[in-house]
Specification:
Elements (H helix, E strand, L loop, with lengths): L1 H8 L2 H12 L3 H30 L1 H25 L3 H27 L2 E2 L2 H25 L7 H32 L4 H6 L3 H32 L4 H13 L1 H12 L3 H26 L12 H18 L3 E2 L1 H21 L3
Antiparallel strand pairs: 1-2
């Protein structure tokens, strides 16, 4: 019954797009419809990822979900850069990493309960986040004094972005080869699953629609922030980041609830690593086609990234999952969100 409702509610996405462009109902209606439409889209991405993972294993399945799930964030970032909202871009990117490490992973462990996670893969993802934070200090530290948008910081960001992308390509190649060796085909399960090409097609279509819905939601969120007297930074780092991660939230919770804690953890951790070492540098480099973006993250963002990675490492270093660990991660996210709220705009 629940699956039928979810399949039927997928129609909310095209309905939201039609209402937005045909009737321009206003930001409040746009926000409500877009938020509702993201729920079944997130479920659909999670469903397609699970079917793909039947053929590839949880490691590659998590990589696929992270790739398709982060595509809307890239699109949102480029749109925001075009509108001159650089602080919103940086806030949403750092908030995305923190949200995946604490909130998405926390809900995954909470819904998955006791079990094992891929310790080596988890620590690799956390190591990538830590490496990214270390490199991002190069343009971030000088920005804490003076104009954070000055052109020299955007220039310094280029070699940092290139280095992060090189590391991402190398580690991803090694990681995918490792998961391919470890994966043992389950013939009985694969017979019941979608074909791999079908799963990829659904992932691609759902990602494109999610990008459009997320853009509508972000546009309405700016007005929401003004009416709620929230800083642009908080709206970006918390609200926009959560909205942009709707696919990862939904996908991780769905597969965790079905007992696939390894895949759920892979989704959260692979997504956080991919944002840190791929999405952030990709946005920085692509921004030169629009307006150069300096990776001048604020001190509160750097601290939140560092603390989140260390806390997740401490909880996963033994390679085990539990509901208690999930609650601890979610509680840590609440603390970080409160810090973002207190920080206000720069």
């Amino acid at each position: 019954m629940a699956r039928r409702i979810l399949w039927g509610s997928v129609a909310l996405a095209p309905a939201t797009i039609f209402v937005h462009y045909a009737f321009a109902p206003g930001e409040v209606v746009d926000f409500v419809l877009a938020a509702l439409a993201l729920v079944p889209l997130a479920w659909l991405i999670g469903e397609a990822t699970e079917h793909a993972a039947h053929h590839t294993g949880p490691g590659i399945g998590g990589f696929l979900n992270a790739t398709f799930g982060n595509a809307p964030e890239l699109i949102i970032s480029l749109i925001a850069i075009n509108e001159g909202l650089t602080e919103v871009v940086r806030g949403s990117l750092s908030g995305s990493v923190v949200g995946n490490l604490l909130l998405v992973l926390g809900f995954s462990l909470l819904f998955g309960g006791s079990g094992l996670v891929d310790r080596e893969s988890s620590l690799t993802s956390l190591g990538l986040v830590a490496f990214a934070v270390a490199l991002l200090l190069i343009p971030a530290l000088p920005s804490w004094n003076g104009d954070p948008e000055r052109h020299v910081l955007a220039q310094i960001s280029i070699p940092v972005a290139v280095a992060l992308l090189v590391v991402y390509v190398g580690v991803t190649w090694w990681s995918l080869r490792r998961h391919r060796r470890l994966h043992v085909s389950d013939t009985a399960s694969e017979m019941a699953a979608w074909t791999f090409s079908t799963a990829l097609l659904v992932l691609g279509l759902a990602t494109v629609v999610t990008a459009v819905i997320a853009e509508i939601l972000v546009t309405s969120l700016e007005v929401f922030g003004e009416k709620a007297h929230l800083s642009d930074f908080f709206v970006a780092a918390v609200i926009v980041a959560i909205v942009g991660n709707a696919a990862e939230h939904g996908g991780a919770i769905v597969v965790a609830h079905r007992g696939q804690i390894k895949l759920a953890a892979e989704i959260a951790l692979a997504s956080s690593a991919q944002v840190a070492v791929f999405l952030i540098p990709a946005v920085a480099l692509l921004s030169w086609l629009i307006e150069p973006l300096a990776l001048s993250f604020r001190a509160v963002e750097v601290f939140a990234l560092t603390a989140s990675a260390l806390f997740a490492f401490a909880l996963l270093v033994q390679g085990r999952s539990s509901r208690g660990r999930g609650v601890a991660l979610i509680s840590a996210y609440v603390v970080v969100a409160a810090a973002f709220f207190a920080a206000g705009d720069r």
